[in-house]
Amino acid sequence: MDEIAKIILSAKRRRFLRSHPIFERFAPVSEAALFRLATGLNFKFALGLSKWLRLAGYGDIDQTLSFREEWFSVIDGSPLTGHVTFAQDIDGNRYAFNPKDGSIYYIHPEQIVARISDDFPAFLQELIRRDYQLKEWMRSISNAK
Length: 145
Fold this sequence. Notes:
About 35% of the residues lie in helices and about 30% in strands. It is of the alpha+beta class. The protein has a single domain (about 1-10, about 20-145), classed as SMI1/KNR4-like. A hairpin with a 3-residue loop joins strand 4 and strand 5 (about 65).
């Protein structure tokens, strides 16, 4: 996770007249805060996610994917009952992990659900591979359903 975080945290994208970081930090995150969050919602973090948050903090990747404490919730009453949402994109799609195996899911508001990665580090690696084009990646999944 250290190498993946280093790549994302050092990446820049040219916008308008200058370069901006791919990851824009909103707030730092402590290990104690993550422990309280997981204990309060009664879940275990997916592999790599808590380390990512400790390294990067809450923030946004490429102004598209948002990591905030308020996005964390345990899903109830759907095929993903027991999974934990951890992020949201600018289109209102949510991202969740399965606390049992760490797999990552995409949840579209129109009830499209798709497993998109085996674990959180692989999810970030794929996002890097796709040049942080999350919308296009998720659009291809939505159109395939």
